[in-house]
Amino acid sequence: MTPEQFIAKWQISTLKESSGSQEHFIDLCRLLNEPTPAEIDPVGACYCFERGAKKTTGSDGWADVWKRNCFGWEYKGKRKNLNEAFVQLHRYAPALENPPLLIVSDMERIIIHTAFNGTVSKEHVLQLDDLRIPARLQLLKWAFSEPERLRPTLTTAALTEDAARQFGQLAQTLCERGHDTQQVAHFCQQMLFCFFAEDIGLLPNKLFSELLKNGQKRLEHLPQTLTNLFNTMATGGFFGNDPVDWFNSGLFDAAAPLPLTGTDVQKLRKLAELNWSAIEPSIFGTLFERGLDPNQREQLGAHYTDPASIMRLVNPVVLDPLREEWAAAKLTIHQLLEKSTQQQQEADELSKSQVTTKAKKAAEKALKAALSFNTKTQNQIENIFRDFFNRLQNFRVLDPACGSGNFLLLALRGLKNLEHEVILESERLGLPRSFIAVGPENVLGIELNSYAAELARVTVWIGEIQWMLNHGFSLAKNPILKTIHIIDQRDAVVNADGSEPNWPAADVIVGNPPFLGGSKKRSILGDDYFTALETIYSGRIPAGADLVTYWFEKARMQIEMGKSNAAGLVSTNSIRGGANRQVLERICETTTIFNAWSDEPWINSGAAVRVSLICFGNTKLKPVLNNAEVAAIYADLTAGNNEVTSDLTTAKSLVENAGASFQGSQKIGAFDISGDLAREWLTLPNPHGKPNSNVLKPSWNGLDVTRRPRDGWIIDFGVKMPEMEAAFYEVPFDYVVTHVKPERIKNNRAVRAKYWWRHGDPQPAMRSALKDLPRYIATSEVAKHRIFSWLNAAILPDKRLIIIARADDVIFGILNSHFHEIWALRTGASLGLTPCYRPSITFETFPFPMGLTPADTNGAIETLDSGAIIPTVAAEYRDHAIAIAEAAFQLNQLRENWLNPPEWIERQPEIVAGYPERIIAKPAFAAQLKQRTLTNLYNKRPAWLVNAHVKLDQAVAAAYGWENNAAELNEAEILQRLLALNLARGKAD
């Protein structure tokens, strides 16, 4: 069929929808050279007329044509309202598998609406005469065969980012003029909702855009005009000649528009040109909040957490359990229907075969019984549906750190989608029509930030309205925004009076609580708040735990008290170790972690971080870790199995390891100086005749170990030196007075303010353990590779170094072995992608070989002929000690020769005795020497290094008694053996 033939035929047609729609579609197929449904799909499985879907009006209805992954097509009679047809398609799109195109036609016009996820919908209107134009005809051809070609290029995310950026800049401008930030936030949110209401038709005739256009001409009257509009929206009525619905919700109650400049209005008019109906509120809220909050404005153009990441928590906590309930309900319904159908068929067969009076009576009885059973079955099915509808309607989701509401919005959408699916299923079975009941009242939030709390309310309401309109449902009015209290603006973990706050009961809890490291809580939150946290949560949360853990503990308590069933929260990935992990251990004691992502990228306040996503509570779902089913999930977010004990979080600190590992000194102040300045001061005299070398030390941090030493020094007045004595060291003391004292005397901790000339946490126990040692073992707290190195006793370790107070090569070798390395990786925490080493949970829990533990090696030492040093140990362990020490000594020699090749360097003594030699690069090798770092060495792992570690591992394995099969052991088996040793020794202790 040619375009001319098609146009000629259908221009004069007067056929009604029922008699003409299928012929019209078949003619289109001929025109486009596309097969008809019956030609390629005789059974109608993926392409058919009258696809079996019920309209939510309750009447029988079908998608007139449906092609899987292409379109749903609805016909109307000539010159009928095609918008009604489009609304109908929207309503039952889920039953049509959500096709990417929704097409409506009255046989004169064909309108293609794109419905691709994540894009701004686009409309293509084709009149009959347009079919003569090849490019227009091609659009229709693509709808049949290549619908992806019709995917809009503008995504909802891009549109939203643009809108949020422009609006955020305007909000920032208003704040910079001195207006109250809360007033700016409220005013901007009123305008935001007006843009949205205008584009979805709630404000008629482009009312808000026209108001801005006219207001630009008379700026002095614009605030009053806006006030009049907002007041009308608050109560309903007329604005000029235009009727305005009653909006309510409190958003327009306090109408206090701010004065705007001509430039401001021009920006608003530009914003009005955007398609606000397609804004993604879950993104907009986060980005716009940054423009309102003075503390976040520098993040205005930063990234945000995408909805798909949030759904990793919302799905397993909110939706998957409900889907399982619905699946079980559907199974029961289908079983009832099958039984009813079977009974009816048996009665029908009996009725057909009757030949005697007795048989006739039996048939009548069977038919009567079948009818009764059918009625009973229908009632049972209706009750099942009603119960599940009630379950959804009463389901509550709490986000106790809701921010601008993105978690709540996505949870609400998921609940509404599930309810819609259930409605379509019930209508397919011919049950009475059910109305959408899930709404904003199903979500609850707690948020301290006033900007975010108000924005969360707007976000949820915009999302609700969008969903209703996008699925073909009309909005409830009078008012449009019901007065529902869904967001509490308050602190979620500490009340103003210092007591523990209550959370409302809710079926589930989800959210992204604030990230703040445990060491920063006091300085950022203040002494009073920090003390309140310690008091309220004493015995439940360690004082050094991150702030986010308080939300985990509160959620755990809600579940334990029966006020919630499950929770899904975001945390930094450091929750897997250290003090933070104790919170997860409490969770595992009272409930179950059933879904988790142990280490994932995330956006927090505009910055990229590494997080753990953790779902816990009462559920029948199988445990899933990192998207794979497992037997169990432990508190360190590793998987367990049913055969062997492998939960490393059960490992205990061992008495034999106590008092050997420490964190370095924490200075709290600008005590650092350069090596050149230190050498200058080392030559200066003091009035009491004592040298500055008493208080000047080389200072190493983690980077000095993993990279090249910086030649950094530090002023150190020890742990007890009085101020009067410190002052005798004239120049170093004056430096501390100038550079340290001004900040330290303002420190929140009284002891740090009082003793301002000393380091904030000088680690007296560490210093005592090191005082008689010529050297000690150090490893960077945070490092890609778990490497242990020797440091000279004169070096003061920074807090970023973990110190082992031993000088022998046996402990050094065991720590550098593969066995300790994998233990450290599994028991330690993480900072982003980088593993962290913790003395308490990594070193103190590690089971050293029998007879070679830190307790066994804390005595006299002996130097072997090779130069290796061993401790004095029991005779039966001496051979193992020698083998490990020799291998470790060789490993260290090889590493040192690679790091500092004798041909490339010169060794110079310090200008005074008592300090390690300085390593100076020869000029020709300076650039090459900079690349000689332990990190680079272990990244490269040359064969000699691998061989040296193999030799060391063999010696350590022999000490464990594993020499016969050590090479065959995988990491899981090694960890299981080490854990078994730990538990056995812990029990003995």
From TrEMBL:
Query: What does it catalyze?
Result: a 2'-deoxyadenosine in DNA + S-adenosyl-L-methionine = an N(6)-methyl-2'-deoxyadenosine in DNA + S-adenosyl-L-homocysteine + H(+)
EC assignment: the record states 2.1.1.72
Q: Which GO terms describe its biological process?
A: methylation
- Keywords, A to Z? Methyltransferase, Transferase
GO molecular function terms listed in the Swiss-Prot or TrEMBL record: nucleic acid binding; site-specific DNA-methyltransferase (adenine-specific) activity
Question: InterPro entries from the entry?
Answer: DNA_methylase_N6_adenine_CS, MmeI_hel, MmeI_Mtase, N4_N6_ade-DNA_methylase, SAM-dependent_MTases_sf
Q: What PANTHER family would the database entry show? A: DNA METHYLTRANSFERASE A, DNA METHYLTRANSFERASE YEEA-RELATED
> Which protein is depicted?
site-specific DNA-methyltransferase (adenine-specific)
Q: List the source organism.
A: Chromatium okenii
